[in-house]
């Protein structure tokens, strides 16, 4: 399949023009007020951004350089900037859950998505990951996205064209099941990277092994431990890939205000697991990593190793247990007595304990 992109010398990086210069009609602009609240609007001649504290005319923003601070009709100030990729992804229309920026960044880096690479992905969802992959492969690259649901493909197409200012020359979308369609539309060994975001990536193992070039990277994004385990074991059993590696990323922001420097109370913790493996050459047998033997059943020795004495816990005497039991049963009774009578009862209990 021919590369759909022209040479870099003929065309500048796609979408670069829309990221520079003064604001133009049709652009999305991020408005931030003095309390840090952000709103994203699409500039329309004659339009206005309304709040309970007045309104800001779009015509006031159009033609201004990025980073301008403008007042609305009541003097409320707004900072105007073009949304960053992370801002756009979290605010764009979505039909399915998006791949968070922290995971998309890991996929691009750990998947080694390079300029000019030939990449296939499934499924597209709302197009968040597709945008990051297109930025990484560039105009001279190739991204073939597979999606089962036509409505998701349409949403993704709209989001991609919004952020790039039009159709991306390196992007192609196909409808259908990945494991069937990719074998029809891609030549064996012609793909550099495979990125899967789906429920059962292990079902695509043969398809991935067929289209992925030797040394190519297969990276999976899964949500649960069960998916992670099953995919890893399927890759190990297949023998055509290197030992799989898995991880997750967590991002925690920090509050910065004078000397009040501390972690934010909220963080983006678990969103999904990432698992990678690389395609071996045809005929090669993957190395079996040496591991300590593991057991699924407990032996008598294992059970004896977890007694209280074995883990250093002090043995409690019967005498102490009796005292604690008496204390527990008489606490309410003592609390209901006058102080002098309660003290007398405690002394009597001590004498009884000495006798025993």
- Give the overall silhouette: flat
User: What is the number of E strands?
Assistant: 15
Q: How would you name the CATH homologous superfamily of the largest domain?
A: Vaccinia Virus protein VP39
CATH architecture label name of the largest domain: 3-Layer(aba) Sandwich
What percentage of residues falls in helices of 4 or more residues? 25-40%
Give the CATH topology of the largest domain: Rossmann fold
Low-confidence stretches: 1-10, 328-336
Return the string of H and E elements. EEEEHEEHHEHEHEHEHEHEEEEHHH
**What percentage of amino acids are in beta strands?**
15-25%
Order of strands side by side in the largest beta sheet?
9-8-7-10-11-15-12
The mean pLDDT is: 84
What is the structural class? alpha/beta
User: Which class of the largest domain in CATH terms?
Assistant: Alpha Beta
Q: Count of helices?
A: 11
Q: Could you tell me how far the N terminus lies from the C terminus, measured between alpha carbons in angstroms?
A: 92 Å
Number of domains: 3
Q: Let me know the largest β-sheet.
A: 7 strands, mixed
Provide the gyration radius in Å.
Answer: 31 Å
Describe the secondary-structure layout.
Elements (H helix, E strand, L loop, with lengths): L27 E5 L5 E5 L5 E4 L2 E4 H4 L7 E3 L5 E5 L3 H7 L9 H10 L7 E5 L5 H10 L4 E6 L2 H15 L6 E5 L2 H8 L5 E6 L8 H7 E11 L2 H14 L6 E3 L6 E4 L2 E4 L9 E6 L21 H5 L13 H19 L2 H17 L1
Parallel strand pairs: 7-8, 7-10, 8-9, 10-11
Antiparallel strand pairs: 1-2, 1-6, 3-4, 5-6, 11-15, 12-15, 13-14
């Amino acid at each position: 399949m021919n590369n759909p992109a022209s040479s870099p010398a003929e065309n500048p990086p796609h979408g670069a023009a829309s990221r520079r210069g003064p604001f133009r009609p049709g652009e999305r602009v991020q408005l931030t007020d003095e309390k840090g609240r952000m709103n994203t609007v699409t500039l329309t001649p004659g339009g206005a951004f309304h709040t309970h504290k007045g309104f800001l005319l779009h015509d006031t923003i159009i033609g201004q350089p990025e980073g301008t601070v403008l007042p609305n009709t009541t003097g409320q100030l707004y900072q105007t900037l073009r949304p960053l990729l992370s801002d756009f992804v979290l605010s764009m229309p979505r039909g399915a859950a998006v791949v968070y920026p922290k995971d998309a960044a890991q996929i691009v880096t750990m998947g080694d998505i390079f300029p000019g690479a030939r990449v296939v992905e499934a499924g597209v969802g709302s197009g968040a990951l597709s945008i990051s992959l297109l930025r990484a492969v560039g105009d001279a690259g190739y991204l073939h996205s597979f999606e089962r649901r036509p409505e998701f493909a349409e949403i993704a197409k709209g989001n991609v064209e919004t952020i790039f200012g039009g159709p991306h020359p390196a992007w192609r979308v196909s409808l259908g099941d990945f494991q069937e369609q990719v074998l029809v539309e891609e030549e064996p060994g012609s793909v550099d990277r495979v990125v899967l975001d789906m429920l059962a990536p292990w079902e695509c193992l043969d398809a991935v092994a067929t289209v992925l070039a030797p040394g190519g990277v297969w990276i999976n994004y899964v949500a649960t431990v069960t998916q992670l385990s099953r995919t890893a074991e399927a890759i190990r059993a297949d023998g055509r890939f290197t030992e799989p590696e898995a991880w997750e990323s967590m991002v925690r922001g920090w509050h910065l205000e004078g000397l009040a420097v501390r972690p934010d109370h909220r963080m983006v913790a678990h969103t999904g697991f990432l698992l990678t493996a690389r395609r071996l050459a045809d005929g090669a047998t993957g190395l079996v990593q040496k591991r300590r033997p593991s057991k699924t059943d407990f032996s008598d020795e294992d059970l004896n190793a977890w007694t209280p004495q074995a883990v250093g816990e002090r043995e409690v005497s019967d005498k102490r247990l009796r005292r604690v039991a008496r204390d527990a049963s008489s606490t309410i009774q003592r609390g209901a007595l006058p102080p002098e009578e309660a003290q007398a009862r405690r002394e009597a209990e001590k004498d009884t304990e000495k006798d025993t």
